[in-house]
C-alpha cells in the first residue's frame, strides 16, 4: 500500500495449491439411429468446455467391435439380435480425461431389403424361353433364388433365372418368385 509521507510497502500471501484445469462437463452419451442391420448409429457427446478431443469404442454385447472407433457405426449382420453401446472418451489439455458409456440399444433387428417387382421377358409360347429381370435390389450384395410358378404353384426344378416353357404350361399363367 502507499500513503503520503510513508514508504510504499507490499506483502505476499502464502501460495495456493496448484490450480487445476477443472473438469470436463459430461453427460451420458445417447445413441441415435434405427436399430436394424444396415442402418447407421451415431453419437454426439457435446461436452464442455470446448474444444474436446473425443475417441469412440462401439461395443456389441459389451465387447469392443474391431475398427468401430468413429462417431458413427453401420450395423452389420453380426449385430442382429445383440445390443450396442458406445464408450466415449474425452480429453482436453489441462483437464483429466473422462469416459462415459451409453445405455444399450434395443436388440438389433433384421435390415430391410427393398426390391422392385420382377419383370418376365420373352414370348409366352411353348418351347420359348422366359427370363426374369429382377431390377436393382438394395442394399447391394443380395443373393438371389428363383422359383417359377404355374398358375401360382411351384414348377418342380424351375429354379433358375430363366425357364423354357413346356406343353404343361399351355393355357396356364406363368410367374416367378425371386
Automatic annotation (TrEMBL):
Sequence ranges of Polar residues compositional bias: 25-34
Bias kind Low complexity: ranges: 8-20
Stretches for region Disordered: 1-34
Name by which UniProt lists this protein: CAZy families GH2|CBM32 protein
Biological source species: uncultured Stigmatella sp
Amino acid at each position: 500500500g502507499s500513503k503520503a509521507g510513508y514508504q510504499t510497502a507490499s506483502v505476499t500471501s502464502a501460495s495456493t495449491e496448484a490450480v487445476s484445469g477443472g473438469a470436463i462437463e459430461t453427460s451420458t452419451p445417447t445413441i441415435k439411429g434405427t436399430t436394424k442391420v444396415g442402418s447407421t448409429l451415431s453419437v454426439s457427446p457435446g461436452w464442455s468446455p470446448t474444444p474436446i478431443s473425443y475417441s469412440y469404442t462401439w461395443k456389441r454385447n459389451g465387447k469392443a467391435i474391431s475398427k468401430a472407433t468413429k462417431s458413427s457405426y453401420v450395423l452389420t449382420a453380426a449385430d442382429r439380435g445383440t445390443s450396442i453401446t458406445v464408450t466415449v472418451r474425452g480429453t482436453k489439455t489441462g483437464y483429466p480425461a473422462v469416459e462415459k458409456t451409453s445405455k444399450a440399444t434395443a436388440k438389433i433387428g433384421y435390415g430391410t431389403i427393398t426390391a422392385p417387382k420382377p419383370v418376365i421377358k420373352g414370348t409366352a409360347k411353348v418351347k420359348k424361353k422366359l427370363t426374369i429381370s429382377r431390377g436393382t435390389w438394395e442394399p447391394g450384395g443380395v443373393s438371389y433364388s428363383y422359383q417359377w410358378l404355374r398358375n401360382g404353384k411351384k414348377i418342380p426344378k424351375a429354379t433358375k433365372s430363366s425357364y423354357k416353357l413346356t406343353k404343361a404350361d399351355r393355357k396356364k399363367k406363368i410367374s416367378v418368385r425371386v
